[in-house]
Amino acid sequence: MQSEDLPNNRPNVILILNDDMGFSDLGCYGGEMDTPNLNSLAEHGLRFINFYNTARCCPSRASLLTGLHPHQAGVGYMVGDWGPEEYSGSINHHCVTIAEVLKLNGYKTYLSGKWHITNDKWHVNDAWPKQRGFDKCYCFLGGASSYFWPKTMVRGNESLEEEIAQDEDYYITDAISDNAANYIKTHANNNENPFFLYVAYTAPHWPLHAKEKDIKKYKGRFDKGWDTLRRERLKRMIELGILEKNWEITPRDPREPSWDEASDNEWEALRMEVYAAQIDAMDQGIGRIIQALKETNQFNNTLIMFLADNGGCSEEVRLVWKEGKIRGGSARRNTRNGESVKFGNKPSITPGPENSYVSYGTAWANLSNTPFRMYKKWTHEGGIATPFIVHYPDYIQKKGEFRRQNAQLTDVMATIVDITGAKYPETYQGHETRPMEGTSLREVFEDKSNNKGMLFFEHMGNATVRDGKWKLVRDFPFEWELYDMDEDRTELHNLIDIYRERGKKMIEAYREWADRIGVIERDKLMLIRARKKPTRFRRWLVRFGSRFSNGIAQWQKIIKKRKRNDNR
């Protein structure tokens, strides 16, 4: 970008990420939630229709913040250390974060919210935010926890656990919003340089924790049930112009009953009411962030981007999770006043208050991802398609429009570097940095073609290649599927047997990409993990897994066939 193409003043940048929200939950994408502040950003900015994350929280965060594929940044799976560098569970020294890049270019940098890209959230290390470019941070280091008394909260490198325990009104979504707004106000009073602010909400990730007043707002809104609401949402999405009329809605997940056949409908509706209240609280907080920008005369010269880290989450919280989640740092045995926390998805446990640990489950995740297949963890559209809203009054002239160009997380770093005029370093703190993988979306903002090539994704063996209108996708360990996304974005008509040569070409391209960035096939990765953590079961896998033609992949295939109906 030439200097004459830059805005008169370098823009502030706010990057907002939320956690485990479906593609169509927001009001401006067709959902039932009241999200007036995000709706306003969309109406005066741009909405992307074909923007993709990487299907899971921590890999998405690693990719978003570094402009690399998650394996290149060190988070190829989750935040556990699986041995190989690509699967260390912490962002490495071959990458730089957006904060590190912009700080080198004169920006002040702030974080308020979830981090989740370090394999050690208990001891200060060089993968914590303050060590990765953020001047100030109010941060949740883990993956999920109580909204009322979260673990692993820090300010800078200092624990906030005792401080939060004394705050009877604490709610993490509000705290993230209010700290972000305070950073904006304080910055305006003390700095002439622009700022970068990363706001990473835990909402609406389980557990379903929300304030009573927000839950009451949604009383009765989901009483029609998931079947009717999916059809109504589909209609709104078509009317908005988000979906094409010829795309079929996917069937209800075959593991779930129809709403009329479901039991405990009142409790089921309440789960969705709490989930909606979590999103509502986030939108209220975004409104306070916007107000802080306006009060300090920074709104027009601030680039705001909003997206989700993966699709709606189908995970059902089970009692057997309890000890593992407590040991792993996400759950607590007791509330702040000593009451025992009730763990599991069953009607005897009321979602919402601090003494519960519940998720909203598969059927409601199916609604969240309307009209798509699958969920968080998979690379079908339900797992990787995200709303992506861009708002920048000083630059975006065509307001309220949709953008249908293909794009992904790696493009965010490239776009920020481009628009701010920042220089991306070839080395940082004595380490060579990998070049950015993404492409700037500046021309896409202007509705010009970005001539994007193939997009690639991999998580836990689930993988995708997007090439123009074509999408190759695999639900590991099953066979590759091929879809024409112009005609069938809901992925219901597999064309792999008709377009064999195209499929073969895309599979070959995927393998070249996977080799280049360090993807290890899931069955091989499981064997590596088994050797590193040789419990009795894993020792069995190490000893006998290689005797099968595809090792653990064959074992997983058998288990999957037993657990679910493959007729999707």
Describe the SSE topology:
Elements: E1 12-18, H1 36-43, E2 46-48, E3 51-52, H2 57-66, H3 70-73, H4 98-104, E4 108-114, E5 136-140, E6 153-155, E7 158-159, H5 161-165, H6 172-190, E8 195-200, H7 212-216, H8 225-240, H9 265-295, E9 302-308, H10 322-328, E10 342-343, E11 356-357, H11 361-368, H12 381-384, E12 388-391, E13 401-403, E14 407-408, H13 410-420, E15 427-428, E16 431-432, H14 442-445, E17 455-459, E18 462-467, E19 470-474, E20 480-484, H15 500-517, H16 522-532, H17 536-544, H18 552-563
Parallel strand pairs: 1-8, 1-9, 2-13, 3-14, 4-5, 4-8, 10-11
Antiparallel strand pairs: 2-12, 5-6, 6-7, 9-12, 15-16, 17-18, 18-19, 19-20
Helix pairs in contact: 2-13, 6-9, 8-11, 16-17
Beta strands, count: 20
Tell me the helix content. 25-40%
How far is the first residue's CA from the last residue's CA? 46 Å
Sheet bearing the most strands, described? 10 strands, mixed
Indicate the mean pLDDT: 92
Low-confidence regions: 1-7, 543-556, 561-568
CATH topology of the largest domain: Alkaline Phosphatase, subunit A
Number of helices: 18
Strand order of the largest sheet: 7-6-5-4-8-1-9-12-2-13
- CATH class term of the largest domain: Alpha Beta
Beta percentage is 5-15%
What is the total domain count?
Answer: 2
* Morphology call: globular
Structural class: alpha/beta
What features would you describe in this structure?
The chain has 568 residues and is of the alpha/beta class. 33% of the residues lie in helices and 14% in strands. It has two domains: 11-438, Alkaline Phosphatase, subunit A (3-Layer(aba) Sandwich); 455-563, 2-Layer Sandwich (Arylsulfatase, C-terminal domain). The chain contains 18 helices and 20 strands. β15 and β16 form a beta hairpin. α2 packs parallel to α13 (410-420). Mean pLDDT is 92; it is low at 1-7, 543-556 and 561-568.
